[in-house]
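Quick one: Glycosyltransferase family 4 protein from Eiseniibacteriota bacterium, structure tokens please.
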Amino acid sequence: MRVALFGAYDASYPRTRVLREGLESRGAEVLSIQAPPDSPPLLRETRLLLSWIRSARKVDALLVPSFGHRDIPLAGLLGRAADSPVLFDPLVSRWDTQVGDLGRLPAGSLSARRVRASDRLSLSLADMVLCDTWEHGDFYSNEFGVARRKLCRVPVGADRFAFELGERRAAREHAGPLDVVYLGGYLPLHGLPAVVDAAAELETKYGERFATFTLIGGGMFFPRVERDVAARGLRSVRLVPRMPYEEAITRLARADVGLGIFGTSAKSGRVVPHKVFQSMALGIPTVTRRSAAITEFFRDEEHLALVPPGDGPALARAIESLARDPDRREKMGASGRSAARAQASPARIGDLLVEAIQRSRDATAPGARR
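--- reply ---
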């Protein structure tokens, strides 16, 4: 099988890495039909078209990776010309992100309507749409009219590096403060204010030596988090800038507890992000918000610990409970890692992608294309 990753995508983005590794685990040849992510309109399409012409190879499918909404029209044209189905992995709705999650565009504004129309067009032109959770799939169906037969659930998962590092990760003898690590962006759906609230509660109750919080990354909410940490005089919280991917995962692997997301937006309830799968792939006991999406994959108190969204005190209690029970941490980390491997390893994702490609080829075969 030969599959073209098509678009102005970031090859280093974790989701794209996992998709490529998944396909390669099934013996697929993966071609890169690519333009730089920051390519302006027209130049973007020109570069993609030239890359397509240079490849001059028949492919079984085109796969447009995350955030490639603008690349779907050209992918659709080339796919039909080559009789190759187009699979789209949007990962998110741009309209939902800009209006509902980030609040950058007022609902009902011309800009919001334009982004919504772009979402609808890209999702309608794709022959198969990948959704990371069924909650997200239902959203695509309800908001944009995507037929259920066009949806295939493929969790974001974790890459080989995380799983292999988890194999080598030795059980830790707990000495000193509990090492709690967050790795990721500072977006609204991540709910970092709840993490700061939890750290403040534990520091007030036990002092700074009970648990240390290392927050790695940056983004929209970073200035707010930085101000809150300083205003509360928290000595147990350390803010670390973004670092190279493998270095960041290696730091996460040393944690006693990994943190997921705690946002309260509708979008945060539809996703299970990289950080959750990465932490679990490493065998780290993980705490994240409760949602219908997370329970598609994992069971509370067996594979990970779930808390209400935006609830700093509940997060503090969950961390406190894990701190006091090393055996429970070890058992949860091992059980979570096993579940993550079964649900979202590159090999499992490869199986799901091959199934999606075959379904899309059957649906677009001569006489079957809509």
